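Archive entry. Fields below.
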Amino acid sequence: MQTALEKALELILSGDAQLKNILAVTARMSLSSSFLALLAGVPLGIWLGACRFRGRGALVILNRTLMGMPPVVCGLLFYLLFSGVGPFRGLRLLFTVRIMVLAQVVLITPLVTGSMESYVSGIAGAVRETAAGLGLSGGRTFLLLVNECRYPICSAYLLAFARAIAEVGAVSMVGGAIAWKTNVMTTAIMQYTNRGDFSLGIALGLILLGLSLLVNTLISLVQRGLSR
Amino acid sequence: MRIGSFTKSYAGRTVLEMPEFTLDGGMIYGVISANGSGKSTLAKVLAGAEPPDGGTPVPEGVRIGYLPQKSYAFRMSVQANICLASGDQGKAMDRMRALGIEHLARRRADRLSGGETARMAAARVMMRPCDLLILDEPTASMDMQSTALTERLIQDFRRETGCAVLLITHSLGQAGRLADRILFLSRGRLAEEGEREQVLRRPKHPDTREFLDFCGV
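PREDICTED_STRUCTURE:
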């Protein structure tokens, strides 16, 4: 164990090429998927939280269900859609970073939407009532509401990124964990552990833990800002 | 200003049934009742924050200022909050001075105490001229000094703009000090409406008499 740890630190400090490639693929995938999830989830969450319409309750329940979707189910769905028997086989996306990003967007967007919906529904009534009392237009009220969501948007992004970087089920199914192409930190840890090569696994695990610590520290800081 | 009759129901239960009534410009109307009699619902419906079961009680084109019971402090400075309805910085400073919160101008509004937030909200709603100002318990969380300052500003604003003021209050003292006329609500209905002295000293409706007797008036 001690030898493996020493070797892991050596790999990190020496800037091992394979390690660097895994980190680059992970960063590309996680940053892209969390950003796209933010783009889709924030407006959806604000809409669900601020507007009252028939069927809203059903949409909120659907989103909460999707928040708990097992990653392997998502991976299986994408695998079937894009594999040789699926309707989208012509796009040739299976075992690419692009489809890993797509699968993660589907997994993460409900988290962003749910987090925004929960925050916005708590303040929307008071914001709307106050803005109406001041004679503000609907557009101005919406902008004020979005302005109130600055911290929750940051918090939702960090949550999405943390989920993306630590996710393994969906990306291993649709990405295939191909070395130098679609292997990310989580899939590589599994792969190297199965082969008995613990040092690279430990090195990746340490980096992942470090990143998780960083993201959680940032989330705490944002939440401190939120708590006023 | 003629306010049309309307009803308001929640989940099939009628909580407010108002007949047609008139609000004259330059007058303060105190709305008093026991809890749960529909005061805030009346304010919300007239302000357009809640739709009535049917119709439009307030005529088209009437400019309404509304201070909800729980006013929201936007995540920006007190001055920026006050300038939301009108960008007139000088007027904003006048309003803040009138309520003794000029020293808070640069402070973040969402970090104020309850009483300070209430004063900021009162200053904010009285930035824009309107025809009907609806105040839902504007001084509920204020100390006596802040209450006195706010009451003075309400009277100044009424004189300045000639608007009708609908003042919802739990304080009979406040209604006695400010209101020209009193509306008494009982179980979601307008039980009595009349001159302040008449309603508070010689109430006609048995529910008003019972309420005032209970309050020791």
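CURATOR_NOTE: The two ends of chain A are 45 Å apart (CA to CA).
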